[in-house]
Amino acid sequence: MHTDADHLNPVSGEAHGLFVLYPALSQVLPSLATLGPAAASIQVPAHTVLFDTNAPCQGFPLVLEGEIKVSRHAPDGRSLELYRVVPGELCLVSSASLFRSTPLAAQGISTRATRLLLITPPVFVQWLEAPVFRNAVLGLFAERMADLTGLIDAVTFQRLDQRLAACLLGRGQALALTHQQLANELGTVREMVSRLLRRFEREGWVELSREHILIRNSQALRALADGQPA
């Protein structure tokens, strides 16, 4: 992974922005001011693999700009998005790996140009001694567990057509998405998504073109997503 690292001056505007995003960092030891090269921000382009399944955790990411998508991948090539990490949020998979000293359970990829601070495992362990930081991490576990429980319910109990309808909503009327991208988000295969999208098109709910989907009837999609007659 090619990265450009810049020292994070603890009195700089960037460091101040980091404290705004992560207030708990103002009370941790060692402080950012004493970390030296360990407080280097990293700039990566879109689609950079930041960590991978079954690899050792190299550090705890704090996102300053951009976004990280965290996903699980099956041997047959399918993937399921678990959650995304944006500035001010914490990564459940990384913290769980560091807590238990076990390999990472998912993959993290930048969805766009991303700037982050990567806290080394020894520093992360020291920071956990600060109650405010430890409470922030434990609060993350509670929030992410609620998100993952909802995801499990959707995968287990909702039909794929309902999940696809819900996936299409909330992105605007014109979507620049491939069938494969939707399949990856839903944890299924492209052929199933294409079949359902053609059904949606026959119903007049969407209009399909190459790598684009135009929403024609969002109300019908919403009804389907909610399990109601469309």
Question: Main attributes?
Answer:
230 residues; alpha+beta; Jelly Rolls; Arc Repressor Mutant, subunit A; 2 domains; 4-stranded antiparallel β-sheet; elongated
What does it look like?
The chain is of the alpha+beta class and 230 residues long. It folds into two domains: 10-122, Jelly Rolls, CATH 2.60.120; 163-226, Winged helix-like DNA-binding domain superfamily/Winged helix DNA-binding domain (Arc Repressor Mutant, subunit A, Orthogonal Bundle), CATH 1.10.10.10. It is built from eight helices and eleven strands. It has helices spanning 13-21, 92-100, 121-127, 131-157, 160-168, 179-186, 190-202, 218-225; strands spanning 4-7, 40-44, 49-51, 60-65, 68-73, 79-85, 107-110, 114-119, 174-175, 206-209, 212-215. The strands form three sheets. It has a four-stranded antiparallel beta sheet with strand order 1-2-8-4. Strands 3-7-5-6 form a four-stranded antiparallel beta sheet. The radius of gyration is 20 Å and the shape is elongated. It starts with a strand and ends in a 5-residue tail after the last helix. One of its GO terms (cellular component) is cytosol. One of its GO terms (molecular function) is DNA-binding transcription factor activity.
